[in-house]
Amino acid sequence: MAQQDTDQQHAGVLPVDDEGYVIDTEDCEKREAKWRERGTSRPITVVGNPVLHKECKDVTDFGEEFQQLVADMFASQRTAEGVGLAANQIGVDLKVFVYDCPDDEGLRHVGVVCNPKLVELPAEKRRLDDSSEGCLSVPTAYAPLPRPDYAEVTGQDEKGNPIRVRGTGYFARCLQHETDHLYGYLYIDRLSKRERKAALKQMAENEPRYPVVAND
Description:
This protein has helices at 28-37, 64-79, 169-182, 193-205, and strands at 44-45, 84-86, 96-102, 108-118, 128-129, 132-135, 138-144, 147-148, 150-156, 162-168, 212-213. By secondary structure, it is α+β, with helices and mostly antiparallel strands. It has a five-stranded antiparallel β-sheet, sandwiched between helices. Strands 1-11 form a two-stranded parallel ribbon. A two-stranded antiparallel ribbon has the order 5-8. It is globular.
């Protein structure tokens, strides 16, 4: 279905399917490149920086300055070779994340979510996946972390239109991980004390492959 060609189509940036979820798997290369090429890559903030450990502010102004922030986020995500990036990971206290992430069927998803909220799943949909997880803000560290293998997020797109995004497998993990960021949680905050300590030790013993902001 082409964007905006029926009354059922919302006036947002991306088309939606018959159930009202955005179709974020079309023209991924073109859309990501368009954002990234007008952006400037910024260094990544790392664990310990105060902006990562508090709830971010809602996005209320979707103007040109905000559009440039989104472009910078796509550029920064590409530099760091990430699949998702929240605004506070480049030091900006706003509830927005970008993603360029495959799901468990290998489909690539590219998009922007502002003011996200995870939809609480009924018990029958809560199958846990205990795959390993990492974070650009905890560079070089990985640890197994059980999360539901399906996720839904509501929010707004980069123009302020209401959206619903859903994903499975790795993409579901990405949606949960990035939403967590905007409410002040890192994945290591969901680990046991021993596992968290081990992850921070991994980080301390290795050099990140991308520019980071050193904590004072």
